[in-house]
Amino acid sequence: MNSLMLKWCVTIVLTIVSFMPAFSQDLLNGSKIWTGFTFTYKVSDKVDVGYEHVHSIEARDFDFSFSQGKLFGQYQFNKKFSIGGAYSYMLLPWNGGDNQFSYHPNVFGSRTVNNLAINGTHRFRLGNKFHFKQRIIPQYFFPLVDKFRLRLNYRMKAYYRADLPLDIVPNVELGVYYYHGGIQVGYQDQTGGYSYYSPNGIHRFRMKTAIMLTPMEKWKRLKLIVFYQYQRELNLIGRDINIRNNLGEIILPFNNYTAFGVHVLYTLKHY
């Protein structure tokens, strides 16, 4: 199979996967299996555009968890600094109670959450082997997500680049998330009364460990990532989530999970 035919096969397979329908139950805590791909088209040495897709199932019974697609662009000022933007959509299981957030079932019988994001990225390194990337990402969600309308996340990623078999690059990424503008919930004051506010604050921590490798030596544009991700929600700074109302019910419960997954990267150059 020649190089051109192989490129077309990859493109067709990725397109089919990205439009697979999703049906299932509510998103659950626990362990998940993620599969996905990122296709990047390098317009020039400074401009990238692309599409990313992630599909998640529950590890215990293989039920659908969510499916997410993202269109993105990135502009590289120099080797250290870049900016970018993205539009993402996420398909989640439908719940009739979602009507209160102006959700309506889509053609797949699930609900869609959209977000717009921008990012600023800074890269640096220590010596020749340790490389770092830090990124700030403000996101705007529509319709409203119960815990936030706006979300700000900061990520720091560290790579170890050495002469390893299959061009293996171990890496670890840490992230913290600030929520703002979610639904208003009642917080009890010292008099026993309730005041209603959005639960603005730092409420999420993520850690992702991974290895990236080149499975085919003669096809450097294709990369494979195998990873493990750990997420915990918490009340670090700001107003609490995971609180009880006057009926003893937990409002905005923590969403904690782990994910094991594989992700394929493919890059095509125009220049």
Write a brief structural summary.
By secondary structure, the chain is mainly beta. 6% of the residues lie in helices and 61% in strands. The chain starts with a helix and ends with a strand.
Number of strands: 15
Discrete helix count = 1
The end-to-end span amounts to 24 Å
The top-level CATH class is Mainly Beta
| CATH fold-level assignment | Lipocalin
Secondary-structure element series: HEEEEEEEEEEEEEEE
- The 3D shape can be described as globular
Tell me which CATH architecture applies here.
Answer: Beta Barrel
Number of domains: 1
Q: What's the Cα radius of gyration?
A: 20 Å
Strand-helix topology:
Layout: H1 3-18, E1 30-42, E2 47-58, E3 64-76, E4 81-93, E5 110-126, E6 130-145, E7 148-160, E8 169-181, E9 185-188, E10 194-197, E11 201-213, E12 222-238, E13 243-244, E14 250-251, E15 257-269
Parallel strand pairs: 1-15
Antiparallel strand pairs: 1-2, 2-3, 3-4, 4-5, 5-6, 6-7, 7-8, 8-11, 9-10, 11-12, 12-15, 13-14
What does this structure look like?
- This protein has 271 residues and is mainly β.
- The chain has a single domain, classed as Lipocalin.
- The chain is built from 1 helix and 15 strands.
- The strands form 3 sheets. It has an 11-stranded mixed beta barrel. It has a two-stranded antiparallel sheet with strand order 9-10. Strands 13-14 form a two-stranded antiparallel ribbon.
- A hairpin with a 5-residue loop joins strand 13 and strand 14.
- The longest helix is centred in the first third of the chain and has 16 residues.
- It is globular.
- It starts with a helix and ends with a strand.
- The N terminus is likely disordered.
